[in-house]
Amino acid sequence: MKRILLAVLAALGINFGVKSQTEKLDSGLRNTLKLVADRFEKDNHAYLINLAKDNSVIIQIVHGALIQQTSTPKNEFNFSLNLTFDNQIDELNSFRELKIASEFINYEWDGIPCFAVNFGNNLEKANRIVLEVLQKVYGFKPDDIFEFEIYDQGKIRI
């Protein structure tokens, strides 16, 4: 997934800075989502959050305007999740078994199964579903240590 989104952003020449912290998964995710909302919602800045474990990006949360499947006509501030399962059959099958999978838009990108969802500005729902995916699909525990990287992608232009 990181390759897909970062390739698109790099091609557009977008990357305005990074803030990074290392915390437990449950508290770190909650703190990071709140920080992003506090920092970017007012001016509707696009952003990208990498959740990394052992120097590998596991999942990304982004402003929905950065993904065709989660963009909206006005592209208001939101939390969106885009999952890609490139050669991850076990994880794909685990994801499809979750009740929340029905909330995601299913699409393919270059033959890779992808799933996207826009949570609007519902921080609690984003937190709950991202934690569920990380725990039930990828097998992480709430107290696992993750690195949270925040990239400012600039103001959204409609």
So how many helices?
4
Gyration radius from CA atoms, angstroms: 14 Å
Q: Spans of 5+ residues with little confidence (pLDDT < 50)?
A: 6-16
Count of extended strands: 7
What is the arithmetic mean of pLDDT?
86
Account of the 3D structure:
This protein has one domain. The chain contains 4 helices and 7 strands, in the order H-E-H-E-E-E-H-E-E-H-E. The two termini are 25 Å apart. 31% of the residues lie in helices and 32% in strands. The chain is α+β, with helices and mostly antiparallel strands and 158 residues long. The longest helix has 16 residues, at 25-40. The relative contact order is 0.27. Helix 2 packs antiparallel against helix 4. It has a 7-stranded antiparallel β-sheet with strand order 1-7-2-3-4-6-5, with helices on one face. It is globular, with a radius of gyration of 14 Å.
What key phrases describe this protein's structure?
158 residues, alpha+beta, 7-stranded antiparallel sheet, 31% helix, 32% strand
Chain-wise SSE layout:
Layout (H helix, E strand, L loop, with lengths): L1 H10 L6 E7 H16 L4 E9 L2 E7 L17 E5 L4 H9 L7 E5 L2 E7 L4 H14 L8 E11 L3
Antiparallel strand pairs: 1-7, 2-3, 2-7, 3-4, 4-6, 5-6
Helix pairs in contact: 2-4
